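Section 5.1 Outputs to date
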Amino acid sequence: MSLAALTALKIGTDLLSGFTAKKASNRAASRAAEAAEFNAKIIERDIDLLTRQRQIINANFAASQGRNARAFERDVQGAARAGFAYAGFDLSQGTAIEVLRENAREFDYEQESEEFNNSITNMQIDDAIEETKLQAELTRMTGQANASGLRASGTASLIKSIGSAGATGMEYYRK
């Protein structure tokens, strides 16, 4: 084989190597971006679960508020009224009405406490949803950064192989 043929073969293999490396890097970059998107979607699935959790908690809270009010009136206040009335006390004034009012204040406090706890739970769920969104976005950004790095690596390989092929060609024509 002649020197010209060997030089042409070297230039061709250098260029082929660069284009192959670039193509492989682009495929790897595409896979990295796909993997990051897949992981982000898995993370975002938790947002739906947290939203459902909030709906269940709020539905239970609403049901419990109504049930508690009925039970309080029926059981606690009813028992107090019945006890005082049975003992012959006037229920419109005095100790009997004070007991009923104290019971009502205690009930109101318990209801407000439950409402406060429910609002804290909702805030915690809101925070978890926001954190989940940020994790998904970070996963996407990491995947994009990896993909960009892989593409840059492929471009660098292509440029290097073109440079090598050019240098080989220049060397041959100098002789």
